[in-house]
Amino acid sequence: MALIEIRALSYAYEQSLVLENIELSVEAGAFLAIIGPNGGGKTTLLRLMLGLLQAQQGEIRIFGQAPRQVQRRIGYVPQHSRTATGFPVSVEDVVRMGLSGLRREQRRARPAIHEALQKAGMLESADARLDELSGGQQQRVLLARALVSEPELLLLDEPLANVDPYGRQCIVETLMALQPRPTIVMVSHDLGLSAHAVDSMAAVNRYLIHEQGRTLTPDMIRLMYGLHDEGCLHWPEVTP
Q1: In the prediction, which pLDDT does 197 show?
Q2: Does residue 116 register a pLDDT over 80?
Q3: What's the longest Cα–Cα distance across the chain?
Q4: CA distance linking residue 157 with residue 60, whole number of Å
Q5: How many C-beta atoms surround the C-beta of residue 131 within 10 A?
Q6: What CA–CA distance (Å, rounded) separates 86 from 77?
């Protein structure tokens, strides 16, 4: 059985259908990139996997169960931190939030936090304030917060957005080096940087096309952007 199984899934906000008849299967240990235009349903699909939204039609199973039943086995990295600018929270405190609700002895908490920060390349900044860090550094702190619970599935919503090129490279390299390797599903626009890391791609724009490999197919491009004049479209092949 695949780690993620989605069958005939549809979801609408009020009367607006955002996702329709979605079919997706993701094996354990895979690294999947979800791509598509703004408003195409990528973040909605991620929230359904998290159990933050409930499918209105169809079925979604994570580890063979409903998403809400396995949330503690899932790590989540949002696109932006919700910490208010100027709020005096330390990097270590932010990562500690990832242990909230988990039965972990207090004496083991700090070593786990430092291990997660080490994996994210942010251990030297453990005592720094979050708002003193660059955008890329803040994203790596959020990644450490997701990793501290040792998730088996890691969901990331545009973790490379609004991050400088060096920061984006650091985040991708961090994800590729994770051991033990969780299953990773990442919403991303930055295919040039992340394509060499992923095993497969899913194009989402109300519907979904999932292909193994690292190359955008013509059908995926049609789904995302349409082809008004195929002879005028020059799309670079996404290869490692």
Answers
A1: 83
A2: yes
A3: 64
A4: 19
A5: 14
A6: 21
Candidates 143, 162, 160, 169; CA nearest to 33 is 160
What is residue 231's predicted lDDT score, i.e. its pLDDT?
Answer: 43
- Please name the amino acid found at residue 3: L
Residue with the two structure tokens 């991303």:
188
Q: Tally Cβ neighbours within 10 Å of residue 39.
A: 12
Q: Give me 16's structure tokens.
A: 């607006």
Write the CB contacts of 39 (distance below 8 Å, at least 6 apart in sequence): none
Cβ distance 23 to 61 under 8 Å?
no
Q: Identify the bridge partners of residue 155 per DSSP, sorted by sequence position.
A: 76, 185
Q: Helix, strand, coil: what percent of the chain each, to 5?
A: 35, 25, 40
Q: What is the pLDDT of residues 23-56, one digit of tens each?
A: 999 999 999 999 999 899 999 999 999 999 998 8
Higher per-residue pLDDT: 100 or 48: 48
pTM of the model: 0.87
Q: Which residue has the tokens 């291990």?
A: 115
Which architecture does CATH list for 4-81+151-232?
Answer: 3-Layer(aba) Sandwich (3.40)
Phi/psi at 33 (5° precision): -100, 130
* Residue closest to 200 by CA, chosen among 209, 190, 212: 212
Cβ atoms of 50 and 185 within 8 Å: the answer is no
Under a CB-based contact definition with an 8 Å cutoff, are residues 153 and 185 in contact?
Answer: yes
Residue closest to 35 by CA, chosen among 158, 122, 150: 158
